[in-house]
Design brief:
This protein is α/β, with parallel strands linked by helices and 637 residues long. 38% of the residues lie in helices and 16% in strands. The chain contains 21 helices and 23 strands. The N and C termini lie far apart (68 Å).
C-alpha cells in the first residue's frame, strides 16, 4: 500500500472519528466507542478497495454508522446519557425545527459533516495485494466494531428496557386539600398570564439603550406595577416558577440528584396537602382553566395543575385540530398570537356564565435562546437580534391582549407575571453584566384597580396572596412564604432564608429487595435498584472526578444519598450504612480498585468489611442484593 493510500485512509479515519471523540468528551464512559469507530473505519476502507458491490456496502455502512454517531452524540450532549424514551420521543420534526432555530451553526454543520462523510470513501481509491490477510483483518474489524459499537448497544439497551417495563395505567389524582370557603361580596374573575422569561429588565433603557417593551411599560402605569420582584432559589424554571407563584412555596426534590423537570412526572400525586391558587379558587366555585402553547406533559405541568384545582387543561396538542394552518406552530408549541386568539374565545364563553372564572395562560414566544416570534408581528425587525425582535413582538401581543380584555370586561382582574428570569439567550451578556438590577415583571389591572407603583421587595411566593387580595380573599393575604405586597412586606426578606420550609416532593420508594439485583450501567452512569433507575450526578451535574452513592439502612430502605469530589469528605460520613454507588474519582478508585486503573468504578456493601465489592465499570455490572446484605451483616462490630 502506497504512502498516498495510507494518508488517505488515515484522513478518512480522523474525519469518521471526530464526532465520536467530541461525544465521548460529554461522557467518558463511552470511551470504548472510539475502538469500534477505528474498527468500522477500517472495515469501510477495506470494502471500498474491493470493487463496485463492495463499495455499495461500504457506502451503506459508512452513511448509517456516521449518522448513528451523530444521534448518540446529540443524546449525550443534551441528556448526558444514551438513547432512551425521552430522546426518541423528541426525535421528530418539531425538535428538528427547534434545533435549526436555536443552534443553526451546530445543526447545519452536523448535516454538512454527515454529507461530507458520506462521500469521503470515494477518496480512498482501490488497492490490491495482500487480499487474503486483509480479508481476515477486515472481518475481525467488523466483529469488533459490531460488538463495541456504542449506538447499537445503546439502542438495544433501550429496546430491552422498554419491553421489560409493563404498562401501568395512570393513577387517579385525588383532591389534595380541604379549604373552608368564605363569603365573597363581589367575586371577580381572574386572568393570569405567565410570560415566558419576559423579565422586567428588558424595559430598562439605561441597560439596553432602549425600552424593549414600551407598550407594557405604558400599560403598567394604568394598574398596580410591582417594580421590585426578585427571583430566589428554587424558582428559576417554568415549573418551579409556577409552583412558587401559585403555592407560595418553593419546589425541590426530596432526592436532589433528580433534575427538577423530571420530579413531578414521576410521582402519583404532586405536592399533596398543599393549598395553591387553583385549590382556593376552585373551592370557592370558580371555573378554573389553563391554556398553554407547550405540551402539558413537559416537567409535569399538567399533572401539577390537575392536582391543584384546575378542571380544564389545554396544551399545545389540544389546539392543533382547530388551527387553520396546521404547520403554523413552533417546535415548542403554538405561537402566542394563536394562544391569545383561543384565550379570547374562551374568555367570552366563561364570561357568559353566571360564575366567576380563573384563566391561566403560559406564553412561549420569548423562549431562549433566540425567541420564536409570532408571524403576526409585521413591523420591521431592525438591526437587533432575533431575541430582541421576539421580545418586541411579545410586547405588542401581550399589551394588546390585556388591553382588549380590560375593555371588554369590568369584573375581571388581569395579572402579568414573568415565570422566571431569562436563561442564556442572545441578550444574556447584557443581562449578566447587570445581574444585580434584574427583576421579574409583575403588574395587575382591573376595573376598580387604582394605578400605583409598589417598590416593596417581593418574590414568586408573594404572587398568590397578592392576587387573592385583589380578588377579595381577606383570609389569604398571608400564606406560607408569601404575603400580599399591597399591604405587607415579603416574609422572604424578613426571615432566615436558609431556615424556610420547602416542598419536598417524595419520589417512589427505593428498596433493596432480597432476590433482586443491583445493576450498574456505564452509560450515564446509571444505578438500577429494584426497578428504579437513578442517574449518578455530582451536585446535579455530570459525574466528574467525584463519588456518588445511595445509602440504605439495615432493612434495605433508602436513607439518603451522598456525592462529593473529596474522598476524605465522602468517607467521613460513609462508615455506617449500606452503600451502593459509582465513582470517577481517581483517588477513590485507586484505593478500592487497586489492581487496575479504573476511570469509572462501581461499589456496593459496607466499607471496611470483607463483603465490600468494587471494580471497574466498563459496560454493565450486576450484583445480587443478597450478597450485598449478607456481606454487611457479617461485618465486625
Amino acid at each position: 500500500m502506497g504512502v498516498a493510500a495510507i494518508r488517505n485512509r488515515a484522513g478518512y479515519a480522523v474525519v469518521y472519528l471526530a464526532p465520536i471523540a467530541v461525544a465521548v468528551s460529554f461522557n467518558p464512559a463511552y470511551a470504548y466507542w472510539l475502538v469500534s469507530g477505528v474498527a468500522i473505519a477500517g472495515l469501510v476502507a477495506w470494502l471500498w478497495s474491493r470493487g463496485a458491490w463492495h463499495r455499495l456496502s461500504a457506502s451503506i455502512v459508512n452513511a448509517a454508522t456516521s449518522f448513528a454517531n451523530l444521534l448518540l452524540g446529540a443524546s449525550l450532549y443534551v441528556q448526558g446519557v444514551g438513547f432512551n424514551e425521552q430522546f426518541f420521543y423528541h426525535l421528530d420534526g418539531d425538535t428538528f425545527a427547534i434545533a435549526r432555530q436555536a443552534y443553526p451553526v451546530v445543526f447545519f454543520g452536523a448535516w454538512i459533516y454527515w454529507l461530507a462523510t458520506c462521500v469521503a470513501p470515494a477518496l480512498l481509491g482501490r488497492q490490491s495485494g495482500e487480499r487474503h490477510l486483509r480479508t481476515h483483518l477486515a472481518a475481525l474489524a467488523g466483529v469488533v466494531g459490531l460488538v463495541a459499537y456504542a449506538p447499537l448497544l445503546s439502542f438495544a439497551a433501550f429496546v430491552v428496557s422498554r419491553s421489560a417495563t409493563p404498562a401501568v395505567p395512570a393513577p387517579t389524582i385525588p383532591s389534595t386539600v380541604e379549604i373552608e370557603p368564605m363569603a365573597l361580596d363581589d367575586p371577580k374573575s381572574l386572568v393570569l398570564v405567565f410570560a415566558e422569561s419576559l423579565e422586567a429588565t428588558y424595559s430598562r433603557g439605561d441597560i439596553f439603550g432602549d425600552d424593549l417593551t414600551p407598550s407594557l411599560t405604558a400599560l403598567a402605569t394604568r394598574g398596580v406595577d410591582f417594580g421590585n420582584i426578585h427571583e430566589v432559589n428554587n424558582t428559576g424554571s417554568t415549573i418551579t416558577g409556577m409552583v412558587g407563584a401559585m403555592c407560595a412555596l418553593p419546589l425541590r426534590s426530596a432526592m436532589p440528584w433528580e433534575h427538577v423537570n423530571s420530579v413531578l412526572p414521576n410521582v402519583d400525586v404532586p405536592l399533596p396537602g398543599e393549598a395553591c391558587l387553583g385549590d382556593v379558587l376552585a373551592a370557592h366555585g370558580y371555573r378554573t382553566v389553563f391554556m398553554g402553547g407547550a405540551p402539558l406533559s413537559f416537567a409535569g405541568k399538567g399533572k401539577f395543575l390537575e392536582a391543584h384545582g384546575f378542571a380544564e387543561l389545554h396544551g399545545g396538542a389540544d389546539f392543533l385540530p382547530f388551527l387553520e394552518d396546521p404547520d403554523y406552530r413552533s417546535g415548542w408549541g403554538i405561537y402566542d398570537d394563536t394562544l391569545f386568539e383561543f384565550a379570547n374565545r374562551r374568555i367570552d364563553e366563561l364570561a357568559a356564565e353566571d360564575v366567576p372564572f380563573a384563566l391561566v395562560l403560559l406564553t412561549l414566544d420569548t423562549h431562549h435562546p433566540s425567541g420564536l416570534p409570532s408571524e403576526s408581528c409585521r413591523e420591521p425587525r431592525g438591526k437587533g437580534s432575533e431575541m430582541e425582535f421576539a421580545i418586541r413582538c411579545s410586547d405588542r401581543l401581550l399589551s394588546g391582549f390585556i388591553d382588549d380584555v380590560l375593555t371588554r370586561l369590568d369584573d375581571v382582574v388581569i395579572a402579568l407575571f414573568s415565570d422566571h428570569l431569562a436563561h442564556r439567550n442572545q441578550l444574556f451578556a447584557t443581562l449578566k453584566n447587570h445581574a444585580d438590577a434584574r427583576r421579574l415583571r409583575f403588574s395587575v389591572w382591573g376595573g376598580d384597580v387604582e394605578p400605583i407603583r409598589v417598590e416593596r421587595p417581593g418574590t414568586h411566593y408573594d404572587v398568590m396572596p397578592t392576587l387573592l387580595d385583589f380578588l377579595g380573599f381577606e383570609d389569604w393575604r398571608n400564606h406560607e412564604l408569601g404575603a400580599s405586597l399591597l399591604r405587607f412586606g415579603s416574609p422572604w426578606f424578613s426571615e432566615d432564608r436558609n431556615a424556610t420550609t420547602a416542598i419536598t416532593q417524595d419520589l417512589p420508594k427505593i428498596r433493596l429487595a432480597m432476590g433482586s439485583h443491583v445493576v450498574f450501567e456505564a452509560k450515564g452512569p446509571m444505578i438500577d435498584v429494584d426497578g428504579r433507575r437513578t442517574l449518578a450526578t455530582n451536585e446535579g451535574l455530570d459525574l466528574s472526578n467525584a463519588i456518588f452513592a445511595m445509602e440504605f439502612d439495615a432493612d434495605g430502605e433508602i436513607a439518603g444519598f451522598r456525592d462529593s469530589a473529596s474522598v476524605d469528605e465522602f468517607m467521613m460520613g460513609a462508615k455506617g450504612g449500606i452503600w451502593i454507588g459509582v465513582s470517577t474519582n481517581d483517588e477513590f478508585n485507586a484505593r478500592h480498585v487497586p489492581d487496575e486503573a479504573a476511570k469509572l468504578a462501581f461499589f456496593a456493601g459496607c466499607f471496611d468489611t470483607d463483603g465490600f465489592v468494587a471494580g471497574s465499570l466498563w459496560w454493565r455490572e450486576e450484583l445480587p442484593v443478597s450478597a450485598i446484605l449478607d456481606g454487611c451483616v457479617s461485618k465486625d462490630p
